[in-house]
Amino acid sequence: MDYSVVDPDELEAVENRPCDLRRLSDAAGLEHVAINRFRAEPGEQLPLAYHYHEQQEEAFVVTAGTLHVETPDGEFEVGEGELFAAQPESAHRAYNPDDADETLEVIAVGAPPAEDDAVAYDPDE
């Protein structure tokens, strides 16, 4: 049997990201799911761009603050303790708005794990 306990604050932040990103699944040795912790200050977004995944399902559990998610169907506000899910090919951009009063913290889960699965989405096209 194999078990892991991971403290996100002890992991190195991923460089060149719009907010603080810690890869939890890598540290835990998990291969079939991507689990990440995002911490976004007001005005920061979570992903690198408005995007969708061809195969990956993605879920965001808000642990602090309010997550805002822009989609072609409108904007969602996801409160602390709530979950936002995006099915494959569902474009989204998650962020903490400029006028937010607090830091946003989110645990993101994606399966299957696929770093090269993200496709940029332009809402004007």
TrEMBL record:
One of its GO terms (molecular function) is metal ion binding. The keyword Nucleotide-binding does not apply. Residues 38-101 form the Cupin type-2 domain. Keywords: Metal-binding. Transmembrane segments: none annotated. This is Cupin. The lineage of its organism: Archaea, Methanobacteriati, Methanobacteriota, Stenosarchaea group, Halobacteria.
